[in-house]
Prior knowledge:
Blueprint: H1 2-17, H2 20-53, H3 59-69, H4 74-85, H5 100-124, H6 129-136, H7 141-151, H8 153-168, H9 172-178, H10 188-197, H11 201-229
Amino acid sequence: MDYIWQGVRESLQIIAGLEPEFMATVWVSLKVAFLSTALATLAGVPFGMWIAETRFPGRRVVITIMNTLMSLPTVVVGLMVYSFLSRRGPMGELGLLYTQTAMVIGQFILAFPIIAGLSVSSAVGLDKRIRATAMSLGADPAQSFRMFLREARYGIMAAVMAGFGRVFAEVGVSMMLGGNIRGYTRNITTAIALETSKGEFAFGIALGLVLLTVALVVNILFSLLRERGR
């Protein structure tokens, strides 16, 4: 047990000292997760609103697929994107494999169905008379849609939080598409796996504490927003 307490003490020193490698690893995680979540939000929220407001053949199938993809294994996403970005893949000439861009692509695929699916749920739960009432008062379709989005804002924000939490803590996509390159694609989860295998428990614990803290904050905000949206 002594090595555990020693690792905890040393990890706190690493965090307090803001060591360059530690900060670089945290920055990669935050940068990639924020960017992939932002792109997934820009694509997922409008798509979710459209699914919620439109009736078309196969709508239930689309919703079922989105709900299924919410729990898509990260290694499956990593394998799928890897096959496209590898040298023998159709996009191999772009040279994106083992870059932050590849990590963003993989994490986007993970976050999109979560944000889109939860956006559908938040929109379906709203009163359908909101847009009709707005238009009867003189609002045009764009204004009525913005009002509809405003009413669904807490559910949408909760969806974004859930998407961010999903990609920030994943490891499969980051490892397979980023390659765990020091100072470039090495993020918190891949660094924890590497440092633990090397016996560097203090560094791994320090990163783990950051990961747990961010995950805790995201889950608290998600719960608060979900309650506000009810």
